[in-house]
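Q: Give me the 3D complex with iron/sulfur cluster.
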Amino acid sequence: MKPAAKNSLTPLPMKARMKVPRQLMPEQPANERNKNFSEVNLGYSPELAQQEALRCLECAKPTCTVNCPVGVKVKEFVELIVAGDFLGAAAKIREDNVLPAVTGRVCPQEDHCEGKCLLSKKVKPLGVGYLERFVADYEQRMGTHVLPNVPPTGKKVAVVGSGPSGLTVAGDLIQKGHKVRVFEALHELGGVLVYGIPEFRLPKHIIRQQLDYMRRMGVEFETNVVVGRTVTLDELMQEEGYDAVYIGTGAGLPQFMGIPGEHLNGVYSANEFLTRINLMKAYKFPAYDEPMLDLNGKDVAVIGGGNTALDAIRSALRLGARKAYVLYRRSEAEMPARAEEVHHARQEGIDFQMLTAPVELLSDGKGWMTGARCVRMELGEPDAQGRRRPIPLSGSEFDLPLSVAIMAIGTTANPIVQSTTPGLGTNKRGYIQADSETQRTTRQGVFAGGDIVTGAATVILAMGAGRRAARSIHDYLTTGQW
Ligand code: FAD
Ligand code: SF4
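A: Here is the predicted complex, encoded as C-alpha cells.
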C-alpha cells in the first residue's frame, strides 16, 4: 500500500490544546462484540489520530517518557503525527520499543505514560496508547519496515522463551549484529501475548507480523524446545557454543485457592481455559470444535480481578455463557486489571460481584460442580503491598449456582530451567535472582528478566527488562567482562 499524502497540521496555541476533547476510540458496539472474538477497539483513522496528537502540550520535560518503562519518545513521535509523517512516527517509536502494535493495545497506560500526562491535571490525558497503536498499524499496512544492516559480530545468543521480554532481547541484539536463536517450549511463539491475551484484545495476526519482521531481521526461532528437558542451559553454552543466554520463561504456573471442590469437573485454571481458547482455537468456534468449552446456557464465574480474570470471563461470555460473574475479594479501586478492560467488560454485561470470595465449590455428588458457596468481605488495614486486606463478614455466606469456575488468582514461576541449571540463584518463591540494572544472574553469561524474575507483572515491564538485558549482554559480549 502507498503511504497517504502528508497532511501536515499547524500546532495549536497552548490554551487551545486543552479545549480539544480526547478523541474517542471507535469500537464495536458492546451488544455485538460480546458474541464474537473480533477486536473490540477498531483503531483511530488518520484524521482522529492527528486531532488527538494536536492535544499534546509538548512539555519541556516530558513525564510520559520518563514513566514509560522503555522510554518511548512520546513528544517526538506525536509531533511527527501532527506533521502527517506517520512512518517517521513509527520509526521514532521503534528506536525504543520493538512491539509498538502490542504495547499500544495492552499497556496499562494509566500507570505509565498517560498516568503522568500534564493534561490530566485538568482534562483527560493524551491518548498515547491509541496513537502508538495507530502509527504501528499504519506502518504495518504500508509494509515499510526498514531492516537494519549491521556487520555480524560472530557472537551467538540463546533466548529461552518467546514472550515479550525474550522478543525484546532478540530484537535488540540482532540489531547489534549478534546471532540470536529463540527457543520456545510451546508450538506457537509469543508467550502470553498469544496463549493468554484473547483475540478481541490483541489479534494474533499482530504478533505474527511482528515475528515475521524479526525473522526478516535474522532472528531464528525454534518451537517445541523445553529448555531443561529437550536441552539444558549448560548444553546450549558448552556444546552448542552460545556465548550468552537470556532466560525469559515467564510465570505461567497456575495457583489454586486450596478450597474444597477445586478438583471438580467444571473448574479450570485461567491459564488452561485461555490456552484452550487461544491455542486450541476455541475462539474460532464453530470451525474448531473444543467441546470442553461449550458454555451455551451455562453460568460461569471467574475468581480474581486482574487482566487474566477479565480475559477469561469475557471469553466465556463470547462462548455463550448465560451469566458471567467476576468474584473479586476487594473493591474496584484495588482491581489490578487495566481500567479500559473493566469498562469494556461492564458494557458487555459482565456481573461484577465485588468484596466476594468463594469458600467452597459445590458438587452434584457425581464429580461435577454445581455452584460456589461465597462469603462477602469488608476491607481492613493495608497489607505489605499497601492494598487493604479483605476480611470475611460472618453470616454473609450465600450459594451461587454455577457450571464453570475459572481460577485467576495469580501464577508463579515454572521451575524447570532453575532446577536443571546448577549455580543459578533463585529467591524463596522460586524466581530467578537477577540484578535490576544489568539483569545478570548468578551464573556467568546468563541473564534473566520479565515475569520469571519479578513475578507476574506487565508486558511493558517485561520488555523494559529485555531492553536492559540486551544492553548488558552486548557489553558482556563486546568487552568479555562480567
Ligand atoms: P511470558 O509472556 O510468560 O513468556 C514466557 C515464554 O517462555 C512462554 O512462551 C513459555 O511457553 C516459554 N517457556 C517457559 N518455560 C520454558 C522453557 N523451559 N523452555 C522454553 N520456553 C519456555 N500485561 C499487560 O501489560 N497488559 C495486559 O493487558 C495483560 N493482560 C494479560 C492477560 C493474561 C491472560 C495474562 C496471563 C497476562 C497478562 N498480562 C498483561 C501480563 C503479561 O502478559 C506478562 O507480564 C508478560 O507476558 C510477561 O512476559 P515474559 O516475556 O516475561 O513471559
Ligand atoms: Fe505508554 Fe506503553 Fe507506549 Fe510506553 S510503551 S509510551 S507505557 S503505551
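A quick observation: The first helix runs from residue 14 to 19.
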